[in-house]
Amino acid sequence: MAPAPTSTSSAVTLHVNGEKYPLSVDHRTTLLDALRERLDLTGTKKGCDQGQCGACTVLIDGRRAVACLQLAVAAEGREITTVEGLAEGERLHPVQQAFLDLDGYQCGYCTPGQICSAVAVIEEHAAGWPSAVTGDVRPEAGVPPLTAEEIRERMSGNLCRCGAYVNIVEAVARAAGARAARTGGSAA
Length: 188
Ligand code: FES
Ligand code: FES
Fold this sequence. Notes:
188 residues; DNA polymerase, domain 1; 5-stranded mixed β-sheet; 5 helices; binds FE2/S2 (inorganic) cluster
């Protein structure tokens, strides 16, 4: 049974990968530590622990966020998706499959964050969100092509110490293309 709340802790229910997890957390506990240390969801990695590397990227209500800069208490009731929640049974998410097929990693430490980030990047792009390198940001210009330059910019919050960037860009482009083919949209 979870310990009773105190002046420095609260009872919260985290919604992670479609499951509800009631737990008591110290108010200073980050979402990253709650996922890894309390829920044993160790797919989400701790790199810098200060918001600079992207290794801890998860999706919160479909938007990417670095879990090391989120307090667990502030994530209560929000829909959190970690890398463990992307596959459907034995079927990998298309982004996971593309990383696998195209060797989008070496040591793999940054990979869960890269994959979660790429999932959101592809949706952001499909929704027409511009990036810092988008040439024409007028609404009437429509969805910008998802060029390699666009992918690099949109994924620039996720660092890879192995330097697997070339294959990561290819994997994101392939997954975006597959999404466009499924939905009739455009990726490039
Ligand atoms: S561990 Fe969160 S951004 Fe580096
Ligand atoms: S694959 Fe090793 S840090 Fe990215």
